[in-house]
Amino acid sequence: MARTLAMFTDTSLCIGCRACQVACKQWNELPMEQPVWTGSYQNQNHFTDKTYRLVRFIEKPQPNGELSWLLMSDVCKHCAQAGCLDACPTGAIHRTEFGTVNINQDVCNGCRYCVSSCPFGVVSFNHDTGRANKCTFCNDRIHNGLGPACAKTCPTDSIQFGFRDELQAKAEKRVAKLREMGHKDAQLYGADTKGPLGGLNAFFLLLDKPATYGLPDKPLLPQRNVFADSLLSVGAALVVGVGALMAFRERGGTGDGDA
Amino acid sequence: MLKSPEWHMLIVWYFFLGGIAGGAYFTAAIADNFGSSRDKNVIRFGYILALLLIGLCGILLILDLGTPSRFLYMIGAFKFWDPMSIGAWMLGLFGLFALVSSALSLSGDAGKASLRRRWGLVGTIAGFFLASYTGVLLSNSALPFWTDARLMGALFLASGASTGMAAISLLLFLSGDAAGEGFKKVKRADRFAMVFELILLAAFLALLGSAAAPLTSGALAPLFWGGLVVVGLLVPLVLDFVGSKAKALGALSAALVLAGGFILRYVIVMANA
Fold this sequence. Notes:
A: alpha+beta, Alpha-Beta Plaits, 4-stranded mixed beta sheet, two-stranded antiparallel sheet, 7 helices, 10 strands, 18% strand, B: 273 residues, mainly alpha, 75% helix, globular
């Protein structure tokens, strides 16, 4: 595998211009959709089959009663341990040589198990194609040395693209500096490869708790219990089997079970 | 901010009928191996019901995909840790078991009967799998309630058993074979499965705690408590014990068990629809 690539979204630099969202739509030829009233400038509640990058606009009350913006350009996290990838029964969802997670549209059969297996609710079902889709990490661009469209277009470098290890080091320096500057809730989300889901290949610097941005504090791999759940089912099968055996077994030598 | 897979009625029907198919198959195979010639119709009905239902199950799943030919993409991968992938393979394997067992159950030949028993014993594993994997599939998704339901597979298995046995007993009743020993035995097995299902359901809710709210206190709660617990489990058990001599009551009890099995899949799937 090639050196892992990543995107680092530093929300402290985001100005909410949505250039990333537009560049993503343009490059991926994602059609128009009805905007949703979200109570702020955010145009969709969540990712859709036509929105792979979404700038979140969160209004946070200040001690003086005024509101301040928290802005975050959200995207598929390209988890190192990806629930969607584990769930996919056809192998359409695969890991690329750069460590990103991609859906091969030609192989997706529209079962939607991945949709229910993403701990972030990223994967969407496209009713027109009958297939699941999500951010591709601009797979076509990164194979041609261009970098994802969102990162390329970001005017403030809030979205940075590069080698994961280099970006992680950069992010750690940046969060230390922000804390020094008094942003006491500044924190990295998904940067640590020893953290939840083995680290996220699209990781973030947040200025508040993950829950404020609608992110789970500690995302879990949905498949973590598959062995235990299966064993419990085997146990139930034994009980049911013995019950049926007792019911059908002939007693008192009247049977002719060997006939 | 999680997303629903938008699994609706086709999937509810599949979970329900797949459970019956698995349950009917392993019931028939156990009767075949440990019962007697008096269980002949239990065996025959069980195998053939499993075959017909698994065919229907395949159609339901293919319809759910929208583009039928895409079902074939499942064959392009085999992931033994993935309930959906292994489920698709086992669906085909179970179909093969049911087909051969059904064919062999039509013959009275002793040599074929011995082969059928051994074949059925191996197929029992596929039957248990089919009845339970759909629960494990749901409990290994990221969605609330489903993801916390450790006993979902076990519960589906018990329900597959009780509904599979109920379906066989109903077929025996409708074919005028309710007076035989087979009917009595399959009802006895069904009572055991129902009691076990009730115990599992209590443990299922206890382990879930507040995560069970979509079932126990939401919009689906009346259906869950009234439809599944009372009409689908408690009433049939009472009918069975009170009216163990009256075959019609036994048949009514079986019909209610089937309704309860459907409601179980319905409320669980719809909790995240």
